[in-house]
């Protein structure tokens, strides 16, 4: 025999007339209530106090977050520490932790009006027309979680005010991550102190005592020779860094003046003549006749070097021929050069022995190096892995950035015998030149070079620059290995480093002999400065700024969009719910389960649901999909009414 479902009898208990009515309950004294109960009762009388509280606090949280981000934008990451009794390590709070706490506060408060408004909208949803009972669960789920919010948006198809609540709930997922991304941290170098030192000099003098006899002889400082040698080799940019002290490698100095050597070159390639005859090579391959000779009007030519195979000479530099373009009186160096290079279309470079032919590129220059005063600006920085300066070789990782802003080169020589006296560089003294910084004013003397040192440098440079380059018939080697060879090698292979040749705001990109002479002059300048740097307690030093690596905050304001969007959606939703609630003439029941529990069903609905206690969850959901109810309010109070003739919604 089939079992029958037990029916639970439903009885209606009589109302106890002695029970207090609603009016008498409202007049019950508060003397038995605690302080907390009185406070919550007072707040409860304000229908929307919690929604307003959530909107205000979440808005203040966003404002505070923005103020924190704005305050620390482009500033060093703060370090907040506090000593805690009983602990060796202090308590530390990071700026990310602060933002995280503010985001939790803001997102939590922002969801108060959202969840309560969604709870209220479920009643308004049923008041508009008859709805499926299952919709009650959809709205309830939306007010409690993200999955429910997504289901609500899908059901409503963006056609109801409740969609704003669903969107706000889903956007709240991005609230915390977006706040965390408001600040990023980059390593930048910032000023830490002013202990960086830089050399400069108003004059140069170098003498050698001849065996302690008290008689000085003209000689070149070995450090000067080394500086010039390193400049010509140009293997790294280290030689271009003048004498200085910078603890971090990242330093800068104000504009300063120093005695220097200046290079002046003029292109005289238009004066060249080329004469070519067929090349005849001996059987052993080591002797050749013919080829091309290139010459200048003053007699300087590739054949004037005395080389065994003059047709193999590809570059000549000479310091004794008569000038063709310049008129400097007794400069530190004077040199004329002729050079031939592989044609652009030959592609030979140094891949095979090269000799000048009828289509070879020719170049001729007349250069001088003279004493001068330069106004310079220097900044040093460290070579960073992802920096474009990685293409610049540096042994110590320091890359100099040198700008020559102004130059004074009208020198005069004041000497009676040629070996006494000085070479002076007329220069506006501090009373006229307002660009001289305060550190140099007190050490200023008229810029000069002592003639004994001047003459020694002239002799040294004359020997260094009187040179030629010849190619080997059987290899790609070039010899002799001197100044001309270094200049030719760097020019053909394009291996000059940027300092003094690379081009920047104040100089033009240069190559060949011009670049080589610029680097020789820069090497001499550094040697002049090194001479005073080596003197203990020398006043000829400029104080600069030392920069150190710091973690710097950077604001990314686009990420404030999520918190603001959540706040605006919550505000608009709240205002809309308040308006709809007032128009519907119902109370603000929000998410209260008591309101749902106490709402009455009409007799027909109760009859339809009399066996609900015998149904499982799946059966209840199936039944709820078929049952259509509408919330109605009449003289008997609010109740759900079953509708059987309503259109599907």
Note the main attributes of this structure.
alpha+beta, single chain, four-stranded mixed sheet, 649 residues, elongated, 25 strands, 2 domains
Task: Give the helices and strands, then pairings.
Elements: H1 22-26, H2 35-45, H3 49-72, E1 80-82, E2 91-93, H4 95-128, E3 131-132, H5 134-142, H6 146-156, H7 162-171, H8 175-180, E4 183-199, E5 203-204, E6 208-209, E7 216-217, H9 222-233, E8 244-245, E9 251-252, E10 256-267, E11 273-281, E12 288-295, E13 313-318, E14 333-341, E15 361-382, E16 398-408, E17 412-414, E18 422-424, H10 438-441, E19 448-450, H11 451-465, E20 467-471, E21 478-479, H12 483-493, H13 512-533, E22 541-555, H14 561-584, H15 593-598, E23 600-601, H16 603-608, H17 617-626, E24 628-634, E25 637-642
Helix pairs in contact: 3-4, 3-14, 4-5, 4-7, 4-14, 5-6, 6-7, 7-14, 9-13, 12-13
Work out the number of β strands.
25
Task: Report how far apart the termini are.
Answer: 43 Å
Strand count, sense and closure of the main sheet? 11 strands, antiparallel
Helix tally equals: 17
Strand content is 15-25%
Mean pLDDT equals: 79
Output the structural class: alpha+beta
What ranges have pLDDT less than 50 throughout 5 or more consecutive residues? Answer: 1-30
Q: How large, in whole angstroms, is the Cα Rg?
A: 46 Å
**Estimated helix fraction:** 25-40%
* Number of separate structural domains: 2
Shape: elongated
Keywords: Membrane, Transmembrane, Transmembrane helix
Pfam family, one: DUF3176
Transmembrane segments: 47-69, 161-178, 557-579
Region (Disordered): 1-31
């Amino acid at each position: 025999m089939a079992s029958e479902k037990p029916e639970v009898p439903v009885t209606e208990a009589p109302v106890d007339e002695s029970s207090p009515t609603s009016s008498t309950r409202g007049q019950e004294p508060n003397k038995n209530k605690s302080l907390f109960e009185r406070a919550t009762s007072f707040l409860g009388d304000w229908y929307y106090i919690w929604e307003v509280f959530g909107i205000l606090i979440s808005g203040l949280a966003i404002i505070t977050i923005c103020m924190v981000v704005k305050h620390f934008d482009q500033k060093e990451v703060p370090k907040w520490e506090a000593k805690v009794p009983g602990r060796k390590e202090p308590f530390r709070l990071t700026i990310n932790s602060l933002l995280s706490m503010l985001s939790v506060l803001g997102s939590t408060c922002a969801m108060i009006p959202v969840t309560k408004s969604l709870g209220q909208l479920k009643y308004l949803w049923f008041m508009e027309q008859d709805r499926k009972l299952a919709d009650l669960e959809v709205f309830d789920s939306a007010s409690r979680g993200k999955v429910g919010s997504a289901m609500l948006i899908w059901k409503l198809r963006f056609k109801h005010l409740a969609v704003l609540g669903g969107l706000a709930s889903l956007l709240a997922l991005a609230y915390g991550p977006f706040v965390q991304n408001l600040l990023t941290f980059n390593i930048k170098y910032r000023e830490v102190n002013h202990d960086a030192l830089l050399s400069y000099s108003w004059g140069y003098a170098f003498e050698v005592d001849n065996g302690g006899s008290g008689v000085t002889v003209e000689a070149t400082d070995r450090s000067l020779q080394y500086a010039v040698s390193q400049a010509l080799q140009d293997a790294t940019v280290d030689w271009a860094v003048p004498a200085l002290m910078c603890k971090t490698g990242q330093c800068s100095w104000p504009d300063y003046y120093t005695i220097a050597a200046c290079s002046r070159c003029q292109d005289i390639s238009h004066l060249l003549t080329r004469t070519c005859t067929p090349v005849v090579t001996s059987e052993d391959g080591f002797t050749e006749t013919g080829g091309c000779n290139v010459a200048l009007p003053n007699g300087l030519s590739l054949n004037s070097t005395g080389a065994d195979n003059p047709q193999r000479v590809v570059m000549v530099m000479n310091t004794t021929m008569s000038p063709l373009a310049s008129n400097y009186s007794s400069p530190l160096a004077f040199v004329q050069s002729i050079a031939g290079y592989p044609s652009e279309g030959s592609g030979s470079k140094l891949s095979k022995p090269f000799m000048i032919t009828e289509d070879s590129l020719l170049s001729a220059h007349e250069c001088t190096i003279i004493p001068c005063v330069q106004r310079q600006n220097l900044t040093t920085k460290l070579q960073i892995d992802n920096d474009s300066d990685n293409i610049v070789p540096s042994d110590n990782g320091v890359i100099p950035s040198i700008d020559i802003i102004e130059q004074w080169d009208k020198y005069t020589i004041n000497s009676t015998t040629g070996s006494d006296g000085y070479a002076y560089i007329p220069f506006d003294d501090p009373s006229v030149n307002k660009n001289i910084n305060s550190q140099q004013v007190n050490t200023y003397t008229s810029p000069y070079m002592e003639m004994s040192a001047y003459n020694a440098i002239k002799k040294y440079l004359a020997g260094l620059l009187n040179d030629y380059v010849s190619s080997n018939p059987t290899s790609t080697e070039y010899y002799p290995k001197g100044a001309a060879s270094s200049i030719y090698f760097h020019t053909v292979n394009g291996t000059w480093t940027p300092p003094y040749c690379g081009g920047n705001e104040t100089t033009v990109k240069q190559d060949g002999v011009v670049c080589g002479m610029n680097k020789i002059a820069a090497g001499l300048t550094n040697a002049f400065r090194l001479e005073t740097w080596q003197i203990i307690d020398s006043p000829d030093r400029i104080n600069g700024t030392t920069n150190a690596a710091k973690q710097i905050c950077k604001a990314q304001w686009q990420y404030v969009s999520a918190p603001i969007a959540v706040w605006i959606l919550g505000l608009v939703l709240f205002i809309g719910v308040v308006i709809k609630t007032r128009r519907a003439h119902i109370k603000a029941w929000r998410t209260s389960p008591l309101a749902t529990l106490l709402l009455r069903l009409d007799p027909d609905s109760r009859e339809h649901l009399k066996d609900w206690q015998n149904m499982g969850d799946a059966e209840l959901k199936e039944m709820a999909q078929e049952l259509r109810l509408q919330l109605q309010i009449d003289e008997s109070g609010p109740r759900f009414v079953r509708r059987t003739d309503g259109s599907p919604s």
